[in-house]
Structure formats: C-alpha cells, structure tokens
Write a structure and sequence with these properties.
199 residues, 4 strands, 45% helix
C-alpha cells in the first residue's frame, strides 16, 4: 500500500503565494476564502479557495505549488492553477453525439442519398419522407416574361450557393430536392410564358 505523502509545512503556509498565482487568471473578488491544503506528493501541495466567479457556483479555485529541497518561501514554484467543479456545481448539459441529435427526416434523407449513389431503389419510408418534403416546400412563383431566358444561369448560381451553405449530407439532400422543385416550377412557368407569346 502506497504511503500517504507528508504535508510540507513551508508549502502549506504559502497561502498568499497561491492566492497571488490565481490572481493572474481571475479577479481578486472572484477568489474567496481558503478552504484548505492537500499534500499531493513529496514537496508538492494543492491549495483550494472558494469561487465567487459568476456562473461558477459551487466551483473551487486551486493552485498547486512545489519546491526543491532546502528552498525558501520566495523560491516556490507554481505548477498549475485553475478552477474545478464541486459536488453541487452548476454544470453544462451532457454532450450528445452528432448522430443522436439528427432529426428523423435528416436520417431518412441521408439514407436516400446513399441508396441513390449505390443504385438502389428508395424504401417506402424514404418515399413518404420525400413526399412530405415536397408538400412543405415553397410554392413556385410566377416569373415575368422578360426574365425567362435568364433562368438557367440563376438556377446554377442558386444551386452552388445552396451546396456551399450546407454541411451535412442529409441537409444537402433536402436542399437539393427543394432547389430542383423550385427550378422545375420556374422552367414550367417560363415555358407557359413563351407559349403565350408565340400564340
């Protein structure tokens, strides 16, 4: 069984040194009362202080000090300073992996994209998800007659902007589908306008 390290008296009395070292990373008003000192090893101790930092209720400041043999109080070494959570601390919510944060529709769209790349037919669930997306997509807008010839160039620019702004494969698939629907609607409107001109 490992022997418990003996508390170094010189380091244990260096409360002011520990507080000054913490003042480099925190304001003086954020460092509260001295909670105690713990021996971490031979001539190595950690001082703990109450935290008054906003948003860090229940946290504790710490400063770890060390010294070489026969060193004086002015020759102490500050090894590490920081703040750690206590049992009653306010903590951030647990991290959730990206795959678990995905919505059901995004997962289905991603699976549909992989199926299309592999040459497989989409499943019934993927088809229904696509139908829902089509119903929720934006309605086509009527295009003035004079702007019909400029449609292909505008569509290519819009497609590039959409692809650059989207990061995940699932969202890219949804955006592509909606962009294709809007493009098709614009072209149909342009054809109707041309037919009216010719007629």
């Amino acid at each position: 069984m490992a022997r418990k390290p003996k508390l170094d008296t010189l380091l244990a009395e260096a409360v002011d040194t520990a507080r000054l070292s913490l003042a480099e990373i925190a304001g003086e008003s954020e460092i509260g009362e001295h909670l105690g000192v713990t021996a971490e090893g031979e001539r190595l101790v950690t001082h703990r202080f109450i935290s008054h930092k906003k948003g860090y209720q229940g946290w504790t400041w710490f400063a770890t000090l060390a010294r070489v043999p026969r060193a004086k109080a002015k020759d102490l070494t500050v090894c590490e300073v920081g703040i750690i959570a206590g049992e009653d601390s306010l903590l951030a919510p647990a991290w959730v992996p990206w795959a678990d944060r995905l919505a059901k529709e995004e997962i289905e769209a991603a699976e549909a994209e992989h199926s299309a790349v592999d040459g497989e037919q989409p499943t019934e669930a993927e088809t229904s998800a696509a139908a829902q997306d089509e119903q929720g997509s934006e309605q086509p807008q009527a295009i003035p007659e004079g702007e019909a010839d400029a449609l292909p160039a505008q569509d290519e620019v819009a497609d590039e902007e959409v692809l650059q702004s989207v990061k995940s494969p699932a969202r890219r698939q949804v955006r592509r589908r909606r962009t294709a629907q809007r493009t098709a609607a614009r072209r149909r409107a342009a054809q109707r306008n041309r037919a009216r001109k010719d007629g």
